Amino acid sequence: MAHLKKSQKELLAKLSITALNEMQEEVVLAIASVANTVLLSPTGTGKTVAFLLPTIKALDPDCEKVQLLILVPSRELAIQIEQVIRQMGSGYKANAIYGGRPISKDKMDLAHTPSIIIGTPGRVADHMRRETFATSSIKTLVLDEFDKSLEVGFEKEMREIIESLKQIEKRILTSATQDIEIPEFVGIKNEVVINYLDTKTTALSIKIVNSQEKNKLQALADVLYHIGNEPGIIFCNFKNTIEYVSDFLKQQHIPHGHFYGGMEQIDRERALIKFRNGTHQIIIATDLAARGLDIPELNFIIHYQLPLKLQEFTHRNGRTARMNASGTAYVLKWTQEPLPEFINCTDILKLTDKETTIFPKWATLFISGGRKDKISKGDIAGLFFKQGNLKADELGVIELKQDCAFVAVPKEKALGVVEKTNNTRLKKKKVRITLL
């Protein structure tokens, strides 16, 4: 069914954006004007909004088939882009499809054909083989963080997908990495390259923290207490190291979350929700968290294990000091451990004893009802104000999903709020409310 097209100003207003930055303006103009665009820009500069605005504007409101395909390297990035499109309120249906959830769930979402599909190459290729959706009207292809997709082994599926889409008229590639070779099968010719990798002004401070012990655990604790109650990521190279560091932080009574590839998808999503809403100020992660995630502005990151490549070092650091804000990257180094050549820093942090606590203010509550039950954020806020007796400044971030919701409330009031609101009605649905 045809619907009224929204103006760029209307779409941006839904995202609470009053004006585009220089990079976004250049990208919007380029994508609208040429067939092939390559965007190189650091994490956190607004690439998603930049490519969505012109590609959504180009959609045909009378077409009832998929028109825009966005391929991404991770489930989290697919979910993030889907959420941005929904927040824009464009009127076009968008669905994220990715591995790690039943394919039957995808089929239910795709039963009413979306105009936009966002997906990981493996899952998209699977659906194309099954002919779950028609591809004849896909005219625009976006490869977001395309270098990462190639890096994690999606080349075979990407080739299969792209070579089967004969009618593509517009290709958009994005990356936060310089000097990545674009494979011939992508079909990029006479592209316009928009490169903002060297123009970002950051106030990133890199500091070396020397550890007398090989395991660096005490040095880590000293840095965390030095920083205090601020949001940040501790980067490790391996899952086993994350578990080792986590056990130590538990002994220190420092609340934290985890994020790595071997986790179940639902656990990864909930870890990010708790991190975004402040239930956890600290998350321990592999390089999977170095880019493409919707997480808040961070004051710091810590390289608990030294990165193996310059690329990893750059992307980890890119999680802080974003969009001209300041931030610090702490490099933990055992005194006998050589620094990689690409870490060119002589600023040694002198730790001083600080009486600080790391105790997040918020707790996360789970609500067993969501968008499909016609529940809105306003409905949730009303319930927590009226029955939960919370004040306006005591209601934190509300994240509304298709079949559930998550709400941040003050830690000391969480159990009392659950007691007052559990098994009550939101719209017409009786919902369970529990502490996550």
SSE order and pairing:
Elements: H1 8-14, H2 22-33, E1 36-40, H3 47-57, E2 68-71, H4 75-88, E3 94-97, H5 103-111, E4 116-119, H6 121-130, E5 140-143, H7 146-151, H8 155-164, E6 170-175, E7 192-195, E8 203-211, H9 217-227, E9 232-235, H10 239-251, E10 257-259, H11 265-276, E11 282-285, E12 300-303, H12 310-317, E13 326-334, E14 362-367, H13 377-386, E15 398-400, E16 405-410, H14 414-421, E17 424-426, E18 429-431, E19 433-435
Parallel strand pairs: 1-6, 1-7, 2-4, 2-5, 3-4, 5-6, 8-13, 9-11, 9-12, 10-11, 12-13
Antiparallel strand pairs: 14-16, 14-19, 15-16, 17-18
Helix pairs in contact: 2-3, 6-8
In short:
The protein contains 14 helices and 19 strands. The chain is α/β, with parallel strands linked by helices.
In words, what does this structure look like?
- It is a single chain.
- The protein is α/β, with parallel strands linked by helices.
- The protein has three domains: 8-195, 3-Layer(aba) Sandwich (Rossmann fold), CATH 3.40.50; 203-334, P-loop containing nucleotide triphosphate hydrolases (Rossmann fold, 3-Layer(aba) Sandwich); 362-435, Alpha-Beta Plaits (2-Layer Sandwich).
- Helix content is 32%, strand content 20%.
- The protein has helices spanning 8-14, 22-33, 47-57, 75-88, 103-111, 121-130, 146-151, 155-164, 217-227, 239-251, 265-276, 310-317, 377-386, 414-421, and strands at 36-40, 68-71, 94-97, 116-119, 140-143, 170-175, 192-195, 203-211, 232-235, 257-259, 282-285, 300-303, 326-334, 362-367, 398-400, 405-410, 424-426, 429-431, 433-435.
- Strands 3-4-2-5-6-1-7 form a seven-stranded parallel β-sheet, sandwiched between helices.
- A hairpin with a 2-residue loop joins strand 17 (424-426) and strand 18 (429-431).
- Helix 2 runs parallel beside helix 3 (47-57) and helix 6 crosses helix 8 (155-164).
- The chain is globular and about 65 Å long.
